Every structure is written in C-alpha cells, then in structure tokens.
Amino acid sequence: MSPEFYSLGQDSLSNIGFAYYDTDKDGIDELFVGSLMDDELKGSIYDIYTMVDGLPTHVISGTARNRFYIYDGGMIVNEYSSGALENGKLVYCLEPNSTEMVYQWGTKIDAYENEDQPWFTSYTEDEWENVSEDEFQSREAASEDYTKLDFKPLSEL
Q: What pTM, to 2 d.p., does this model score?
C-alpha cells in the first residue's frame, strides 16, 4: 500500500477506503484504495489492483502530488504536480488481464518550459506540443467528468 496510508495517523483506517469498479470493461472489477479525507484529496486513488491470470495484482500507487481518478466511465487519469509552475493530467486505459496502463493523451501547464504560453498536449508519453489555451481546455480531462467511487472505510472491514 502507498506511503500516503501511513501519513494519516492513528485514524487512518477511517480516512482510507476501498471501492470496486470495472475500468477495463472485462467483467471483473478492479480494487481501488483511496482517500476519504474531507479535503482536496477526497476521492483520489492511492492504489489500484486488478486481476491478472486469476490472481490479484497491484497496478500502481499514487501520492498527494501524483494521484489517480477514474475518468469518463473507465479511463484512469493521473493528476500530477512537479512544482509551482508545472502540473498535468495524463489519461490511460487499463489493459484487461494486465497491469499495463496504455497512454491515451495528456495535458500540462508548464511555465518552466514556456512562461508566456504554458499549455501543452501530448499523444505520446514523451513528446509535448505547445498549444493555445483554448486547445488545451478542449482536451484537458475535466474533473467534473471523474467517476465518483463509493469508497467504504477500511475500518468497516
């Protein structure tokens, strides 16, 4: 389990929850462990588990500055921050019967790279294109399109 779990103190079992959701649409729910804290991280996913060849398998862990959400009915969005002048959202699909997360697209604001026009999009994980703010906003994974998981507190297990 991610280091975030250990930073929540004595009440961590009430502040962390679990939920099931079939993101890869293979008929088998994935297990998500996430935040129940009543703050800006509420609903963020710390850990994702899936089934690979009939065995539960860890996919990925997040942190406060590198967190995950379910987007648009099944994709997984990774929100990250690399400092005050760079943050982004990377969108993936989880391959069925695998821990492979396949990159779909990304958006980032990177004033380190271009202070005057800091908006970027990407369709490969390592090549970014500088775009207008309108192009950026039309492509960014909107947080209002995140799927709200019904996390149950670990303390209820």
A: 0.88
